[in-house]
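Model it.
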Amino acid sequence: MVTAGKPWRHIGIHIAAMIGIIAAAYALYVEFKLEEMRPPAVPVAEKSTPFSAMSKPKSEYKAMCDFKVGGFSGSCTKVFESSYGHILSHWGILPKGHPLDLSLASTGGTVVAFINVLVPESLI
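Modeled.
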């Protein structure tokens, strides 16, 4: 049953979830562009092991979320390219490159979509 105060709260949660889905979609776009614009990998000469045979160079892509204003700067592309971009492998729960080692953007989009679509109104 919906009371007088709940409709606005319900609408607010769905608006926040839609903003989250848009942000996650943009983050996925940035991740795909990072991979697309990455130069080809080159062999590493100094440490020759099967696991470090190729180095992964940094991408040349700069996203809208990279900024530098005055003395402050931030870069979402650095986060996506770092180990934190795939948090489960960063924590050591899954090996790097595992199919379940989802990126932050795909995990965030899934969680926000779950909140927006599957959470019943009675729980809000």
